[in-house]
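hey m, so remember when u said the tokens were messed up on ur end? i reran from scratch. heres the input so u can diff it against urs
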Amino acid sequence: MPDSGEVRPVDSSQRADADSQVRVYGVAPHKGERPQELVTGFLEATTSDDPDYGTARMYLAKSKQREWDPAGGDTVVLAEPPQVHVERADDRDQDYVVTLIGKQVAKIDPKHAYKPEEGTYKERIHVAREGGEWRIDMLPPGLVVGVADFQRIYRSVNKYYFAELGTSGRGKEEILVADPVYLRKRIDPVTSTVNAVLDGPTNWLDPVAATAFPTGTKVVDRRLSVDDSNALKIRLNKKAAGTNQEQCRRMAAQLLYTVQDQSAKVSQVVLQRENGSQLCSLAREDARKYAPDQAAGRGADQQYFVDAQHRMVSLADGDEEPRRVPGPFGADNALQLRSVAVDRKEQRAAGVANNGQALYVAGMEAGASLGDPRVTARGGVKSGLTAPSWDGLGDLWVADQDPDRPRLLRLPGGTGSPEEVQVPRLDGRITGLRVAADGVRVALLVTKGDRTSLKLGRVERRVSGGRLSLSVQELRSVAPRLEQVDAVSWAGGSRLLVAGNEQGGLQQLQYIDTDGSLSNASALPGITGVRGVAASESAAKAPALVAERDGGIVRLLPDSNWKLVTKEGSAPVYPG
């Protein structure tokens, strides 16, 4: 510890975890480096914490140093750093072609969106003499990094935008949707995060999400930081000058929820005009009406499942024994159940009969009636209906597994007439589903042959002739490495809890982000034989995880191990 020297003030933004880590800087090219050494040095320099890749630019020909834009193309992630193969381009030893080869696992596009994409990577770099030294004068757009460097350099950030809900449900301004991206960890994290929000939603989410920021809005200051009172003040250009208070507060809400968990706990966002005058301010306590998890439900401490008598029971975090729920689903001598779902307000439940052929909806209070089936399956007892799922708008979703005509259905308000939701390019049958609270994303288990995979779909709403129609568009694989997926549950705004196994491996339970990357959440205790899982979307607390295992129900409370709840039980769920 130093015991002398001057006292120096430290900017509050420097207290962030990302800035407290050891930084890595590249090494400039040495005199007389051969082409292979030059390219290897360049690749290492691109993985440094140099804000503008200044050292990496030293490896380029002068004509390329200014025009090279590392962010102008995809960042390719390889399983290992690329292999460098050099071949002479002519007999005069004046230039060389250097080929980079590797096993690609993912790409990050120019809007920072991660996409799993396996394949062979092969690109060429051209090296020529300049001033007696070898320099790179032609290279592919973007960057290429190995997985280890990617994990060291980049961090996952949830940007937030407002769900586009058409004319149904809540107002489109009320529900914030998480849009995960990857940004560099130690390069001015607050400023880069704010700029990423202003860039707008990623290409996949864009059709169902909107930003409150006027087109062309930019940050005036080059560097932003959270001050000593944990307030974030941001000057915006003239594009934002005419916004009214409500729009400005929505803009501030997007930034508050995006920034607050990335580098410092933000207590307030203050948006200013270019001249420094205030547009609006939004404190954390006043931003609760925009909270991303507000549609997820009231709490995260109540779980539900089907007991040995095929009745619906509930289990709170502090309970040792489950309790029958009020209403027809928990009553003796009533309908026997296969699966259940509870709406986000925990006032109604949906249940599929034990034979899988009929879906019922009933209140969760004494005296409520069961009523007639809301949906009847086609295709006989070998197919039947999937477990249902409620979104945060009060709509109920279920899939009919009829092999001749599989259908995805939505019941508006939970009790409206079933409407078929089109799923273009669906290759297989939907055998499981979980709709996000925001109502614009749905996780699907899709079975083709003897393999079940996990897909994430975007729920688009279109109004034609005064009638609203829904479709699930652009299905993308979010667990491509899993040969078989057995169960899935939402576990946050951009996180899924998945049970599945890689080819030839044992089943494992893990968190996966909705962009397909492995979550940075801590690893879960090992468990196999899982047929169903349940986690909470609410961020209010660290919720318990519940699973159906070997015909019984087990639960994982925070800071503990899996514990048996009951030897007989199935279909665990949280509200949703």
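this time it looks ok to me. Helices lie at 17-20, 35-45, 54-57, 62-65, 147-153, 189-198, 245-259. if urs says something different then somethings off w ur setup not the seq
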